[in-house]
Amino acid sequence: MANSKRKLFEKRRMRVRNKLRKVNAGRPRLSVHRSNKNISVQLIDDVNGVTLAAASTLEKDLGLAGKNNVEAAATVGTAIAERAKKAGITEAYFDRGGFLFHGKVKAVADAAREAGLKI
After folding, report:
1. Is residue 119 part of a domain?
2. Does 64 fall in a domain?
3. How far is CA 72 from CA 46, 60, 63, 67, 93, in A?
4. Number of structural domains found in the chain
């Protein structure tokens, strides 16, 4: 019986997340979700189960509505790093979920690093 694409994605996502939990206890998680039209990023405190900061291409103040490209992803990465600084967070670990680390996902991570967030 063949696994569906969604099941394979979920397995990959949980494999990545479980490996990261073992290594990065205590730091917030920078979680990325990429859809066909948008990209969103959250800084999550897994100990308390709270979202500390978030950014997305859907936000009006970023002016990226409808843009689905690497430049928009980089803008979201810069925005999450600035919001993390305001929240007093200097380092986090990057949770790519089930997505491959290239293209838009990589652009988010690189932009967050350049803006001062230690990943």
Report:
1. no
2. yes
3. 27, 13, 9, 6, 21
4. 1
